[in-house]
Amino acid sequence: MPRKIGRQLWDAAVASGSTIVITSDMYLPEHAILKLIEKHRYTRFDQLLLSSSLMKTNKSGTLFTHLLAEYNLSGSDVIHVGDNPKTDVKPAQDKGITAFHLPRSETYLWKNTQYKKLFRGRKPIESLARSTMYSMVAKRAFADPKNVSKDTLFNSDPFNIGYCGLGPLMFSFTHWIREECVKNGQNDIYFLAREGKIISDLFEIMEDYQNTGVRHTYLYASRRATRIPQLFGFEDIHDVAKAVVDRSATIRSLLENRFGLFVDAETVKKARTCGLASTDSRISERNMSNVMALLKLLQDDILSNAKIERENYQAYLKSVGFEHHGDPTVVDVGWNANMQGALSKISGGVVNGLYFATLDRAQLWSFADLKVNAFLRNFANITKDSPILSNRLLFEYMLCDTTPSVKNVTKNDEGMFDPVFVDSTEAASRNSYVSQIHKGILEYALDYLENFGTEAFELCNDKEVSQSILNLFLSDPARGDATLFEGHSVEDLFSGSEGIPLVKNSISSPGYWRAGSATLANPRPKKKIAKIQKVKPLRTKLVLAVATPVLSRYLAPKQASELREDPDAFFENARHPVNINIGKLAGIIS
Predict the structure, then answer these.
(1) 3-state DSSP call for residue 498?
(2) ∠ Cα 308 415 222 (to 5°)
(3) Which of 105, 211, 252, 495 has its CA 20 to 30 A from that of 133?
(4) What is the pLDDT of residues 530-573, one digit of tens each?
(5) How far apart are CA 482 and CA 507, in angstroms?
(6) Which residues pair with 408 in a beta bridge?
(7) How far apart are CA 171 and CA 444, in angstroms?
(8) Model pTM greater than 0.85?
């Protein structure tokens, strides 16, 4: 996985017209290294010198001696760039060569105070799965020395939440789905909206690399869209009404979002006859019996609407093949598997489920002869020991697609089915953040497969490793990362909640994410004020080291002197296209 700064330095060397020689202390044969170089498109070089071919090494300095003799050069004629100060820099300098140390991305990651908590004093080499994951993270999040964080996991960047935190875990989860489908002959799977969208996208990326032949479909579904069609009598109405209700939920929100009714003057009148002051009153234990009485009065309207929505949804399921390929399997993040049960009831057949995790209440569907299986934990009754399960709403918030929740499905004039979305209060800022998170998740998968091919599927099987970064973020976030979710709220219209702040800068009244709120509420540590010194970046130093002796041959003495003594002024005043391009490569002019 090439580093951006490495590519920039390479391009600068090529542009200078200098002879380029690649050296390495490497046990692999030359043909293997040439294949690797070609794969990453580093093709414009003059020679490859390997210790495995010459029996000489950078570390001992003999490889540098060989290089100088072969090209009849003195040390001052050569610039060497390497990532190891002991084997690249010091031995080269001992031969009089100008040597620059370009630290590996992993070096910056190992110095990060957050990632140090995951290493417990050791570098991540305990397992191949662990080392490959951290190598991926380092090369993406710590590739640019000028823009690396010393105390956050994600450098306050939502893309990095997706790439470094969720990417490894969701890759591992999606691979598990594929394995389960092949192992159990589940050849017809349906990814449920909205969390299922990112999982579906990952599944398709993996299928492009290694096709399983599993038929997969993205299915428009939601608690609202699947629960109303399964209402056949007042007992069903009673059960849906008694499901979790948020303490801020009103009677109006219950009727509209859970039962699909429009609250008009007649509905308000019926509410008053049942002893309810207003449909805008909040639902509580004290007035629940009155609410049930109102639902009894509205039973015919509720069931009539349910029949219409059921017939439309059954036709939609039939149009996507839900009833024609054996026992369908739904894929979702999970928890109680209620949509699996609802789809089974609506379709009149067995529906299986594959989930990230489920809670103990999901076992009810298992007792009803529906197969329920989960990646992280199945039927969990204790969640406090899992940062992900104890922060489920935040986990869902990051995975949930940017399209609004599905209200129901209708048939258009062409006989096609269209989803009807609920009116959402979700802010545009949430969609912008989540889009970046999802982009990071998908790019992790693409990078992982590009670097390791189908072997990536064997490397990602360690679920403890794949969730380690996300677990640390959820349980002990750095301030810079926690602030990403300030001003964000999670809504749950089905339960009547219109917005729970994810984090709040308050200890007495924290947001949903307690660890994030605690981090924000703690006073900021005082920072030492350091003297600011203008230091040229490594890239500038390297480009100037290559370009100065070359350009000086063609410049007037006064210009050559200015280039050596004040390169900033030289390139800012440059007029010749070659000088301008070199100034841009050096980062002096834009």
Answers:
(1) strand
(2) 50
(3) 211
(4) 443 445 667 788 788 888 887 887 788 888 888 888 888 888 88
(5) 14
(6) 420
(7) 8
(8) no
Which value, in Å, is the radius of gyration of the alpha carbons in the chain?
31
Measured CA distances, 193 to 162, 223, 330, 352, 396 (Å): 19, 10, 10, 16, 12
How confident is the model at residue 195, as a pLDDT? 95
Dihedral sign of CA atoms 154, 158, 159, 161 in order = positive
Domains of the chain, start order: 4-102 (3.40.50.1000), 152-224+325-525 (no CATH), 226-307 (no CATH), 538-585 (no CATH)
- For 46, the token pair is 């003059």
Strands 406-411, 352-359: pairing is unpaired
Separation between Cα atoms, residue 482 and residue 495, nearest integer Å = 26
- pLDDT for 530 equals 42
Residue 38 tokens, joined: 């070609």
pLDDT at 107 over 90: no
- The 10s digit of each residue's pLDDT in 188-234 is 999 999 999 999 999 999 999 999 999 999 999 998 899 889 899 99
Query: Parallel, antiparallel, or unpaired: how do β-strands 497-501 and 489-492 relate?
Result: antiparallel
Query: If we measure between CA atoms, which residue out of 293, 289, 300, 254 comes closest to residue 271?
Result: 293
Whether 316 shows a pLDDT value over 90: the answer reads: yes
**Both structure tokens of 209:** 């690399």
